[in-house]
Give the backbone structure.
Amino acid sequence: DSNDDIEDVSLFDADDDVSRRSKKSKIRHPVASFFHLFFRVSAIVVYLLCELLTSSFIACMVTIILLLSCDFWAVKNVTGRLMVGLRWWNQVDDDGRSHWVFEARKVSAQGSKTSSEAESRIFWLGLITCPMIWVIFAFSALFSFKVKWLAVVVMGVVLQGANLYGYIRCKVGSRKNLTSMATNYLGKQFLRQVRFLGVQKPS
């Protein structure tokens, strides 16, 4: 279930006018922006440096899982709502059936938006980059036969991948196909490149 009247929050690129760009460059929620990156980056740093800092695998595993859990809760319940006006959750109806809900903040009557372009870039950059890093860690642990670390890495992929999937569903809407979204995006980028080359071509 998703709302049709949703705010157009920037996902990959910004198409706002130059006059609006200066207003949208300000970070309106600095604490939320900080913690949006703090927990997930800290989990990656601890994973990379834990063998140098301590020989206790249990201590490293517990620390990383705690950081990943804090990140999952903060991104799902706080930073997504404040920074880009998106939220997703699961609810159970009276019949016991589970429903996933994906929502985006409605545009106000004046057409103003409360999220800034700077916050949107920070949000999506952290949301997309960190799960990709955990996927790389997963392949590295698998091919290097570090079986004990595989469970920790899979936890990172699952928790951060769940938030990434949920917020992409919020952005594009449950009625839209993710494949068509990617195709449309690549098509727009191709047309931009063609237009740019056409302008640069000497007459």
Remarks:
- The first helix runs from residue 18 to 24.
